[in-house]
Write a structure and sequence with these properties.
The protein is mainly alpha-helical and about 280 residues long. The chain has one domain: Alpha Horseshoe (Serine Threonine Protein Phosphatase 5, Tetratricopeptide repeat). It is about 75% helix and about 0% strand. The protein contains 15 helices and no strands. Helix 7 runs parallel beside helix 9. The protein is globular and about 65 Å long.
């Protein structure tokens, strides 16, 4: 497996792990009208609101513990204390509460202070992986905005990192953070033009095509990835959905059937069977 294939496989795996660890949330299907509405929306979420909602789930003892950590930066080496506090907060929200948003936020803040390319790209990728499976435009915006800052800081350290460039482009393409999606598309397109085998870049452009309703372009890129990774069920499902949304029932049935043959979850098999049967009518 070459580097682009490994990056794509890792990204897909991270999506699955995020969903497994923080709860299996299946986003509603995005049809073309919904995607158009999302593109025109100006969503906004503040972390303080997410944190307030998360804290409502705390016991009095947990609330006291969190307040103590938040107030721990008082004297001495403030940066070091702040870094330690962010890591403690990230660990608490991940390990004790299994809540992604506060965990990812505090882990990102710690990564900014650590300022290493490895920590910054890891934190950015966590936001991006969740963005790939998010359906709410406001949350997409929040996830992409956080990932963008981290990718930009990582690129200041290593401007030649194509994976970070693609990640940054994905924030613009998928996150509703700009009225000009070409701001994200052009750098990614430049990378895949030079190296068509960069499957991570092809994947992000394919997702962008799917999101914007350019299903033929998305299908071409997904098929390219499928040729390199025939066992990648996630790509199979994207193909099925693209064909479904463009009204090509025959190919939609073909790819939904392919996914059905690979998936092990009984509920997923049932939903796929129902969709296939509906398309056959």
């Amino acid at each position: 497996m070459n580097r682009p294939q490994l990056i794509l496989a890792t990204a897909g795996l991270m999506v699955v792990l995020v969903l497994f660890f923080f709860g299996n949330t299946i986003p509603p299907k995005k049809d073309a009208p919904a995607m158009a509405a999302a593109a025109n929306a100006k969503p906004s979420i503040q972390f303080k609101d997410l944190l307030l909602k998360a804290k409502q789930r705390l016991t009095p003892e947990q609330s006291e513990r969190i307040t103590r950590i938040e107030n721990s930066v008082t004297r001495g080496d403030v940066k070091e204390q702040q870094f330690k506090a962010y890591k403690q907060l990230a660990s608490f929200w991940k390990d004790s509460m299994h809540l992604f948003e506060p965990y990812a936020f505090y882990n990102g803040e710690a990564s900014k202070l650590e300022s290493s390319e490895k920590s910054l790209t890891f934190a950015a990728q966590q936001f991006l992986d969740r963005l790939l499976v998010e359906a709410d435009p406001a949350m997409e915006n929040w996830l992409a905005s956080n990932a963008k800052v981290l990718f930009e800081q990582a690129l200041q350290i290593n401007p030649a990192n194509d994976s970070s460039k693609i990640g940054l482009g994905a924030c613009y393409i998928l996150g509703s953070i700009s009225d000009n999606p070409m701001q994200g598309i052009l750098p990614v397109r430049e990378i895949v033009t030079k190296n068509p085998n960069n499957l991570y870049g092809q994947y992000i452009l394919a997702l962008g095509g799917k999101k914007s309703g350019q299903f033929d372009k998305a299908i071409d890129r997904f098929l390219l990835i499928n040729k390199a990774q025939p066992d990648n069920m996630e790509i199979d499902l994207h193909l099925a959905e693209c064909y479904d949304m463009k009204g090509d029932k025959q190919n939609a049935i073909k790819w939904y059937t392919t996914v059905k043959g690979k998936v092990k979850n009984e509920n997923a098999v049932k939903e796929l069977t129902e969709r296939i049967n509906l398309l056959k009518k």
